[in-house]
């Protein structure tokens, strides 16, 4: 009886080994799922941060430039053109191209045009124009348009998942326009 007891207590049985391996595999599988989920969440948060940074940068640039414009020369829900001087040699245009989902800023100084991309991945973008009393208008003559409202929605993809950020409306007053 003593010898049988020593053999039994002396080593692991096959069932004990299989149970241990099963627990180990379950633990490793759970850790892998947690790692993948955290990695996807981290990539999505990074995508949101980048979209937010680009949106804030675009809005800051537009706000500064629109407030400093002399007059609004042309209005369209997808394009604005501003004049910066009395001679009309310095102009600024913001344009939304729906097919390429891009918003551009175009400066024209003495006939030379430089263009830069403000936003990419814009699913929708719209300008609205309001007069001094905040009534909607499309009239740019005689300084009727005083307040520009901007609204857009951009999306981006991170690890084959599409994230969407909605930018709420921003209203910008053209300070130098009568």
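Q: What amino acid sequence fits the structure above?
A:
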């Amino acid at each position: 009886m003593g010898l049988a007891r020593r053999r039994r207590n002396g080593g692991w049985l096959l069932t004990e080994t299989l149970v241990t391996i099963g627990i180990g595999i379950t633990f490793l599988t759970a850790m892998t799922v947690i790692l993948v989920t955290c990695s996807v969440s981290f990539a999505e948060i990074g995508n949101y941060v980048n979209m937010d940074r680009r949106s804030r940068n675009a809005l800051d640039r537009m706000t500064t430039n629109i407030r400093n414009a002399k007059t609004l020369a042309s209005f369209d829900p997808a394009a604005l053109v501003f004049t910066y001087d009395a001679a009309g040699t310095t102009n600024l245009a913001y344009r939304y191209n729906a097919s390429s989902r891009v918003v551009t800023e175009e400066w024209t100084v003495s006939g030379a045009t430089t263009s830069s991309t403000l936003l990419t991945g814009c699913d929708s973008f719209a300008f609205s124009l309001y007069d001094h009393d905040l009534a909607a208008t499309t009239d740019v003559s005689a300084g009727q348009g005083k307040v520009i409202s901007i609204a857009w929605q951009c999306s981006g993809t991170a690890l084959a998942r599409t994230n969407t950020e909605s930018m709420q409306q921003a209203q910008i007053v053209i300070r130098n326009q009568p």
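Q: And what stands out in the fold?
A: The chain is about 35% helix and 40% strand.
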